[in-house]
Prior knowledge:
Strand order of the largest sheet: 2-3-4-1-5
CATH topology of the largest domain: Rossmann fold
Largest sheet: 5 strands, parallel
CATH class of the largest domain: Alpha Beta
Number of helices: 50
Number of strands: 7
Structural class: mainly alpha
Shape: globular
Mean pLDDT: 88
Low-confidence stretches: 1-18, 921-926, 993-999
Distance between the termini: 52 Å
Strand content: under 5%
Amino acid sequence: MTDQGNELRTGTGSGRGDDGPAPRVRLRDRDAELRSVEAAVDRLCREFAAGGTEIGELLAFSGRPGIGKTSLLHEVRRIASLRQGACVLFARGGERQFKEPYHVLRQLLQPVLTRLEPDEFSQVMGTWEEVVGPAMGLKQPKAGARRLDPQGVRDGLDYVLTQLAPRRAPMVMIVDDLHWADAESLSWLAKFAVRSAELPVLLVFAFREDENDWPDETQELRRGVLNLASRKHELSRLTLSSVTDMVRAELGDKAEDAFCYEFWNVVNGNPFEAGRLLDQVRDQELEPVEENSRQLRELAVDATGMTLKSWLDRLGPATLRFAWACAMLGTDIRIDLATRISTQSTEGARESIKQLRKQRVLTQAPNGNLEFVHPLIASSIYNTMPEATRLGMHGIAAVEIENAGLGLLAASRHLVETHSGEGDDRIVKKLRRAAVEHQLIGAPEAAQRCLHRALNEPPADDIKAEVLYELGCSALLTDPSATVNQLRLALDPEEGPLRPELRVDATFRLSEVLAHSGELGQAALVCQEEAEKTTDPVRRQRLQAASFMWHAFRKSEEDGPGRSARLAELYRNLTGREAADRAVLAMRAWDLTLRGEPSTEALALADEVLDGGRLPKGLGWTDTTWGFELPSMLCLTYIYNDRVAQAERLAADAIIQFEVAGWSGAHRGFAYFLMGLARFRRGLLAEAEDFLRRAYRISERIGAKLPLAWDAVGVLVDTLIARGRVDEAWALANEFGFHPPYHATAMVLPDAASLYGKLLVAANRHAGAAAALTEAGAQLKVRGWHNTVWAPWAGHLAVAIAADEPERAREYAQEAVRDARRFGTASAIGTALRLQAAISDGRQAVELLEQAVEHLGQSPAGYEHAVALVDLGAALRRVGRLEDAQEYLYQGIELAQHCSAEKLVDRARQELANYGLRPNRLGLHDFQDTLEALSGPERDVAKLAVRGVPPQRIAEQLGVHLSLVNRRLAAVYRKAGTGPDGLASALGLPQRQVEGSEE
């Protein structure tokens, strides 16, 4: 066979299990592309060998069908596989499989992941094994597993590749026919292409340039991939000289120039079309002379636009039916399956394969399965199938795939293509089961396709509403509007009966998605109306409690005190401590907290909800009966009642459980927010900022200005103010729009108007602050909410108006202190007293601040305590008590440093310096103290870093991952209070460069 024949008829292996380099093929007119490939692979291998890790890039090849992309990628695989130590991963999209979830990613990752030793597999997977494993087909979901959030699967894949790439580096990931990649794989690849620059990974994608060749749902991802490519190549058609060489290599030197020129014109320089036309010329024994040039166009039509008749003429009915079965299966075709789908005998299938290989339709992959020589041939054959034949064979394929033990996930692609309208209960059951399995691997869109097809069957009247309910739930994490529409249909009596327990659950799910979309009033009304129709007391209580819950999160409410009274009545009527009863306790505790009732009452109720300090069964973070709002209420109750450590334990559990469950959307975003809020309340401002920014990023990824974004931005603004970065806080608030009218329907946590007023005070815009805080106070009083920690409007309003209206300011400050004392937490009282002191003078200010320091010293509010200490030191200095002032200012500096409140530290030092006092206490932190503050592993990395050992080498010497080294170094810098340049001095260690032998 000629070189050109090799180019056209090989190079299409699956990449599954073929460890050795592929045979070299001859490529024409691709010198520039091959140089680019060589350069990219050289750079990857060279820089990785030199210790580089952040060296990834994306190489993209595009062009029209048949232009030679596959042959070029075949050469890329060969080049990369020849490099010592290189790991080459390969996958191909399939026209028939672009709706098969994770089809491309499974091809890429299954081979390398299944070859890992058990210990290494566990390290690579980390906590994501139960998320990534099922999605990649490496294991079955656990019994009772919940649906996976697609974003969670993508996040898990990010983690796995971040762990895998350094272990198998340098890594080359190749994807052919990207335009037919399934949406699940493509969405991850598009995002990973951004992160690949941080890893030793070369991505190589090949796809059709024409947008019409891409499914509509992947057009945006296509543009994203194109924009990321560092090297882009659009393959051009072959030159006349190359095509002439091809013709003469196949037909001999006797081929005349005129014939070759016409041949080149007919195929338009397309290698695939040239190969097919050469086959026709040879089969017809056409002499390559000028007189026969005009016949080329007729042959070309037959060669590239194969009709049913032309394929029948070439193959015969039996062989064509086998080819149809192969075209339906797509890529990596199992011979046994194709044989059964085509209803042939083993001997008949053997003859069909022989004929199809002879006709250059199929080739054998390295793993023994079959592949089409080119996807254009597969498309041509599939498109010739009569509709009735196609529908029937898809039905056979679904049965045979399931019988072969490949499961409903694989069979469902064919089930959705079968003829509908028969009302076959078996088909409906299989589609519903397939939908469940798709959700368990994080593929809700595939689940929805199955359920839509089930509705078209159609299902029996008595289960139609159930199918609609399942369809609505399948879109819960990805498409809120679809969820609302389908659940409303499921609840519509005209669609058929819905079992009582499902009816209650459908109502709750509908209210949940309405609430997450900001329609809290509508969410509460839906539950309230259904509760009135529900006779079962347990189910009715669930709906009543849900209605109260959504009202509690509303921005405004017509009868806040009345709702609170009705909730109190519901609480008094509780008779047990089942999940529904505990849910009412949690809501009552949060309601008492917002109302500013004695903290002991709220905490007593909150503690009753927990079981041994943990969330009870039925109220867990991933429990779908109540959703994550109820445990969130409990966590918020502890945060605002000075039990921050308990709140952090709950928030940490939430983060872990959402990660394990693969829920990486709003659920995990809110968990990050709760942890950020808890850290802010403790005064750990740097950590709070990190968690809040993570929550904000997740929110922006989901949608614009969701309630979660308002929550995260509000507390982030407060955190930046505390750190002294007022200008940055002001810029963030303006950029986001954190100002009136705030979110249209949802309450912001904490109170948005109070936070905005506090920002205006910090920015010295006192007139605006006075107006905003006065309005906030009026609205909060209408609802009966007097918590001075959640909404500290009165104390800050006093500060805002003190210069112009001192008497009114004193009234507001006293009101804040009264409300705080009624609530009773140390942080509430201490903060209110500190703000009252801010508008007082002399001895009165000192007395108030001494009380504030005493209270705050008994609270977890570290930053507020630091502010009170510095304020007290400044007030003592003003009344001449310099020795006492010095002591409190030193304490304030220490605590402010711990809180990362940089501007507060500067302010305290300035107070000391202005009056001749030392701005730093001598001997406060000597070298030994700092070293002792480090853990053993932190000391190990610190000593190596001081010697100039780079992080990558530290990881190698200590036998740990680079990411762990970087985390430990960050802790060292934070505790030492310096960056790399000052680390040796801060630790009292000698600094020297690493010896050459240690490189």
